[in-house]
Amino acid sequence: MSTVELARPQESAWRGSGPVVNDFSIQVATVNGSGSQTANIVLLRALFRMGIPVSAKNLFPSNIAGLPTWYTIRANNRGFIGRKKEIDFLVAMNPETAEEDVRNLGPGAAVVYDAPLGLNRLRSDLHFYPAPFDKLVAGVCPDAKLRRLVRNMLYDGILAHLLGIEVEEIRTALFKQFKKKVKAAELNWRAVEAGVEFAAENLPKTDPYRAERMDANGNKIIIEGNAAAALGAMFAGVTVVTWYPITPSSSLCETLIEYARRYRIDKETGKATFAIVQAEDELASIGMALGAGWAGARSMTSTAGPGVSLMSEFVGLGYYAEIPTVIFDVQRVGPSTGLPTRTAQGDLLSTALLSHGDTKHILLIPSNPEECFEMAIQAFDLAEELQTPVFVMLDLDLGMNYWMAEPFPYPKGGLKRGKVLTAEDLERLNGFARYKDVDGDGIGYRTLPGTEHPLAAYFTRGSGHNERAAYTERPDDYVRNMDRLGRKMETARRMLPRPAVELAPGARVGLVAAGTTHWALVESRDQLEREHGMTTSYCRVRAFPFDHELGEFVAAHERVYVVEQNRDAQLLDLMKLELEPALTAKLRSVRYYGGLPLDARTVTDGILEQEGM
Amino acid sequence: MSTAAAPPPKKLNRIGLDLAPYKGLKTTLCAGCGHNSISERIVEAFFEMGVAPWQVIKLSGIGCSSKSPAYFLSMSHGFNAVHGRMPSVATGALLANRRLLALGVSGDGDTASIGIGQFVHLLRRNLPIIYVIENNGCYGLTKGQFSATADLGSKLKTGVVNDLPPIDTCMLGIQLGATFVARSFSGDKRQLSALLRAAIGHRGTVVLDVVSPCVTFNDHEGSTKSYTYMKDHEEPLHEIDFVPFFQDIEVEIEPGTRREVTLHDGSRLALRKLGADYDPSNKLEALRVLEESGRSGEVATGLLYLDTGREDFLELLNLVEEPLALLPEGRLRPPESALAEILEELR
After folding, report:
1. What is the pTM of this model?
2. Which chain A residues in 224-243 lie under 8 Å from chain B, judged by CB atoms?
């Protein structure tokens, strides 16, 4: 075993030469379809239950079995849970990639690997921990067919011993993961024990990384953003859900189906208070969602960029015909045969202006599971209050990875169903004009099909209508309607989630970001301050159209870096559309578009380069 | 001598409405367009069946056919959707409110070309909707290009000959799951009226393909969707007598001369034999008739296929009785204890 004198990895240089406690990253390199997900989640949850801030990134291919997959877990005692570029602990389970994985490590990293791979011959500046996985698994799992699945649990045991992860927490996490499948849990538990025993007897610790119990996680939960959004939709009272499977959004509706079956079946009748339909394509899923919204249901669909493209025409109709619905876009790299399992913020610009003619849409942009939950609920209220499609813009990193989150607060206040006239209202008012701006906020009153009144009906079509919803091609009618729709967006601007602003006293540089970029950004600000004495302010945008505070933030700084995960600076482009020209001159761009979750060092380097530092 | 005469008393239907609420705006389609006749039949059928107009939604896609919902049922909510995608809007609306009666009006281009994807899935689901195809074999609103239902060898006004086989929407309907499939001709007033009234009483997907000549672009020599062609080639499978559920009429039955079928609402159709006996519950027979009529150039009309046994899409979904759109908050938002339970599982 290699135990040479080691150079410290660059990232850890400032920490000195003692043990490195609760600040490390683990990367498990496997083949997809090998059942490693359970072992990885158990590891994540055990660290979480030890009170250590953690995050997980599943870097997987568009494939079911046989291609390389990497699962990265990061523990960080200061709560930085964005992706960390440097790997401190590699678990090399994939013979195809093992050598390259080892070569990519920084000096001083540790490697747990399958002994026959002989990886210790490759480098002399790493800590190597070989283990005979096949032999160990044969010892605990007599059934050869199950060994492939149980094998991964060995590295949980080995890591538990090497890093000091409490085995009781591994056990608790494991039994939680297997739920009622106690026999399977016990078999896997024996593998963990075998891993621990082997490591204790054969692998003297030489690396500095340690996990120690702390108390940073309080009452937190662990959840994927898609599941959080699904819960938000259920507690928003969604009734019609239409969808078409697409990575990375499928798990949103699939989770919603599970929860709705548990919590939205009428106890007395056994009947569902929701309809969930898998449509034939996204052209149909958005059509169904709009049809349902038109008829008064709280409706939604979820999709990714390629689906949003297909929905484009219908969403434009939804905008002009003023129909509420909620669309979750879990963004990823496009197009169909792009990198469908890689993350991106590449739909911001096209979605904000989706469809033809003068269209503009409301985007809510969550950064964490708490916001996925809250913004899902807000989205249904906003859609019905503003009578327009509302987008919730997640991304693959947020939607499909596990995140720590504060427990979601139970929604306060009732459902906001917007301006809907009943038969009684129509009797009192003696009719209505569907697209008349009665209240001066650009929002008309609507009736629902099925309203039992002779004056309830109106005809829904695109932009060719007057205030009474009658067909017209008159220029003045068209202009009046377009201007009212413009006013409605101004009303929307005042109702949307406001940006989260942190003004640092004396900071001349401001940073702007949205969505998951947040997690790299908070850590990058720390790096800039600590390593370069550069203080920055921060404005996290949470919705489009932008709040006036964004302009004030830009005005208050000499230079503003807009950090985002796409090639063409889409968030910055949207800011250019909305801000005064004098302000847009202050904007600079930092972009990452490699498909992996953004890391802090990339942001820091991007800013420093432009600062000439 | 007084010339003032009292206006004749208005005829009222069984729910006490006169004809006016069933009418729409004045048509803007060409004079003589088959679609206008279909609109008239729709007005009559909904009036005569005493359907409450506010329970009806009328939906369409894009094209001349799809303009026509403005010309009937002015007291019903209407939705002019995007090209070929009315079925999805109708599906969503019915999911939101299962008590609505959906009437979709489409054309041959809207259904068989751009809309074929949504059309076939509508059939699979057996969505409860009356889906009328106003079939003129061409794109009228863009000035007469061939559609996918144009017959092989039929001619455009410009002399261009169609060299692709037609899509038969009725065959698709029968094969893919529609439970009421009929073909008619806009000029066959009696048959179309009976089929429309029967369609109102059916629960499931009704495909009603109505050959409806385009007088401007497809009513010439060489067209197989012209008035002349249809008058010469329509081959009714039977004569149809319709008996609504609210009329207790005994139809005189001569043994062996007719078949009788009962619809979901209790209305009855008596199918009087014209030539060979035709059994509309026989799927294979229906497909054979359509295949043969396609080859011969004759147009078989009437009730091609009926299945009153299959559950419709809304029944499959196990929904509560009340419209989902109208459920109160207490039935939509699970209690705080549910959230607490879920969160505990995530720790």
Report:
1. 0.95
2. 231, 234-240, 242
Looking at residues B154-181, what average pLDDT do you find? 95
The residue of A239, A300, A421 whose CB has the most chain B CBs within 10 angstroms, and thus the best one to mutate to test that interface, is A239
Is A286's Cβ below 8 Å from some Cβ in B?
yes
Give domain limits for chain B: 20-325
Residues 6+ apart with CB under 8 A from B89: A287, A288, A290, A291, A294, B59, B79, B81
Judge: A273–B343 Cβ closer than 8 Å, yes or no.
Answer: no
Q: Residue A85 has what DSSP assignment?
A: S
A183 and A106 assigned to the same domain: yes
| Among candidate residues A454, A474, A495, the one where a domain is terminated | A495
**Neighbour tally for B311: CB within 10 Å:** 12
**Residue contact A235–B339, C-beta within 8 A:** yes
Q: Which residues of B touch A453 (CB under 8 A)?
A: 54
Q: Does A221 touch chain B (CB under 8 A)?
A: yes
For A216-267, the pLDDT digits (tens) are 999 999 999 999 999 999 999 999 999 999 999 999 999 999 999 999 999 9
Give B245→chain A minimum CA distance, Å.
23
Choose which CATH entry (3.40.50.300, 3.60.15.10, 3.40.109.30, 3.40.50.970) describes domain B20-325.
Answer: 3.40.50.970
Which residues on A lie below 8 Å from B321 (Cβ)? 269, 271
- Note whether A33 and A79 are same-domain residues: yes
For B7-54, the pLDDT digits (tens) are 777 899 999 999 999 999 999 999 999 999 999 999 999 999 999 999
Q: Are residues A463 and A605 in the same domain?
A: no
Mark whether A338 and A386 lie in a shared domain. yes
Indicate if A163 and A53 belong to the same structural domain. Answer: yes
Cα→Cα distances B198→B60, B268, B299, Å: 21, 8, 21
Domain range enclosing A453: 423-495
